[in-house]
Amino acid sequence: MTKNKRSPEYGLALYNLGYTDFNQKNYQGALNWFGRFVNESVHDNKQVLADAYNRMGDCNFDARKFDDARRSYDKAEQVDPSLGDYSLYQEGFVKGLQRDYTGKIQSLNQLITNYPQSQYIDDALYEQGRAFVQLEDNANAIERFQALVKTFPQSNMARRAANEIGLLYYQDDKYTEAIAAYKDVIKNYPGSEEARLAQRDLKSIYIDLNKVDEYADFASTIPGGANFDVNERDSLTYVAAERVYMRGENVEARNSFVKYLQTFPEGAFSLNANYYIGLIDYNQQNYESASAHLNKVLEYPNNKYSEEAMMMSAEMAYLAKDYAKALEWYKLLKDRASTPERRELAATGMLRSAAMAGNDEEVILAATAVLTDTKVAPELENEARYYRAQSLVKVNQMAHAVADWQSLAQDTRNAYGAEAKYQLAQYLFDTGKTADAEKEVLNYLEVSTPHTYWLARSFVLLSDIYAKLDRKLEARQYLLSLKQNYQADDDIAGMIESRLEKLNE
Questions:
Q1: CATH number assigned to the domain covering 409-505
Q2: Residue pLDDT, tens place only, 218-263
Q3: Would the pTM count as exceeding 0.90?
Q4: Rounded CA gap, 81 and 75, in Å?
Q5: Whose CA is closest to 160, among 144, 179, 180, 139?
Q6: In whole angstroms, how large is the CA radius of gyration of the chain?
Q7: pLDDT band at 1 (very low <50, low <70, confident <90, very high)
């Protein structure tokens, strides 16, 4: 005898089989039984039928068949509106997963309006708030969360919502409102995970505001929060100052770093604080203060700021014309430098500092060190040869000086080459090699140079050469031509006149 599919018992059997699988989390099997129940049996109980549709929605939800789930939930509400609050809640939740946040809000609004006594009201308000967050509508999100906290203060959702309010204010840089919201969480839900998170974020806000002392005062009033020890205050005071600096607020940052050092003179971050004060002062050209703080930094050997501190100290000494001190800093920097660029900067600084200090021995050493580097830039190579030649002359190593001049003189387009070409000719003349000197000058006049002073000096030298060779007419012609054509206000005019007078004797 076959079972009558139209009988209530048959339908109930299908429904119960569905629940058996559902409770065992065999959702595919449950979906099959519930489907047969709604399609094959007599339904004299609308509540049971609506529940079956809701469970079919749950099964499809688990399988992430969201469109099928929504259709089942919608059908459940139509069959029996008394179960519609769950249907609407789930429908709204599914829309959220489909990123239809406006639709989610609308479905949950139906729930709140049509089922004001529903057990899902607090969840609905929370999920609406989350949907507004996804829509980047923080104002409406806060309004929903506030309504939840006010209406259902003891709900688990209320605790989460209260924390969300603080976070949203924080994200909107509304620090006063955020502080008040987080303090409410800590006060109203003591010992909860939400209170712990609120205290964490509250600490971060006070750090952002550079008001660590205020946070410390508040923390001392919290049960379990009085363990705000000196080490943590040390750390937070520094972090607060650093955040101000990272925001580019240099004046406030400097004041905060100074306050930190005053409060914690031996603090864990005194190195960092001294560095940042030094850097700020350096950039503001307050070199005296910058030097004092950077010297503090360099008292810590081989720290992460050493290289930068040495570089700034060297530059400040050079600008102050304390070339001997600058030389020593650049030497230290060269030993410390971590990149080729920084090593070249140090080598250049050593060379120039030694030259300005008149320390010929150090000039020769620095220049030679530069020139042994196979990757030296041409401009620096020329500068090194120029300074080295000057110092070699002073220490009477003329052969080596001539070698540098010869190298430089190959290119008279730059200032170093222009002068070197002249110096080479003058050296030949001074050492009695008059013919070679004449040849060098005439070659100079042929190749020329944009640096007219050294070209003019070469014309004067040529007149000296011809005067020595007793070719006074040619000497005078060159001098008169130079007098007529060279207009610069320098010592050339005096050289011309003195030689013309001598030729007239």
A1: 1.25.40.10
A2: 888 887 655 667 888 899 999 999 999 999 999 999 999 999 999 9
A3: no
A4: 10
A5: 144
A6: 44
A7: very low
